[in-house]
Hints:
Elements: E1 7-13, H1 19-25, E2 29-42, H2 47-50, E3 54-58, E4 62-67, H3 81-85, E5 91-97, H4 100-111, H5 122-128, E6 132-146, E7 149-156, E8 160-169, H6 175-189, H7 200-208, H8 210-218
Antiparallel strand pairs: 1-5, 1-8, 2-3, 2-6, 3-4, 4-5, 6-7, 7-8
Helix pairs in contact: 7-8
Amino acid sequence: ELGRASIEVEAKFTAGPDTEARLVALGAALAGSSSFRDLYYDTPDLRLTRADHWLRLRQGAGWELKCPPEPPAGGTGGVPEAAAQEPPAVATTYQELTSPRAIVGRLCGVLGVAPAPAWDQVPGAVAGLDLQEFASFGTRRRSYRLGGLRVDLDQADFGYAVAEVEALVGAQEEVPAALEEVLQLRRALGRDGATRVPGKMSVYLQRHRPRHYEALLRAGVLAGDPEPP
Ligand code: V4E
């Protein structure tokens, strides 16, 4: 299972008027434009997102769960306990689950309940686990490809633009090399330096769900602003 895991290494940055020209100059090709709407779900007491688990229905793509990569079996060579508690860094690593069985299994693990037979599809589990929508927003995206990297330039419909460099790898062992590539391209494109750039969700919650946002700051899942807004 872990060998086939889809692990996403990504770093956000602030795009400028020259970002796309820079990408093309570096040899990147426009891979496509898309528009989609994401609906995000959590328990009423926010147990999924406080555990850094992000369940969403992406229009046109289906259900996805973004969550921390599972610790390797055996318990050695994994991320030390302390590192798992650290606030989000400039680059993040998430597993992206798309199969209903994997999604529901992971949700039940986090919530500490046994999967019910009726939860073989995600909507059944969403209803059964009393998950409720807490965020909904649309994104217009332009995607570039450069070697094994993807760069997404996102414009969210609540008035926030953010870009990200992303690598998709199949196994934990490939993460360090991918991380280096991602950070190198981020440096080449952005003016953010070592500054963390908030994702769409962070800004959405801050503006529209301030209590949820505060809860995630306290849980160490989201990082506070490095400077006042
Ligand atoms: C993982 C996560 C969230 C879920 C949304 O992930 P994000 O990559 O921001 O959205 P999007 O639309 O770009 O998804 P993609 O199409 O790339 O799959 S919301 C918050 N997190 C955690 C998180 C974090 N703590 N800090 C940063 C910089 N990013 C994500």
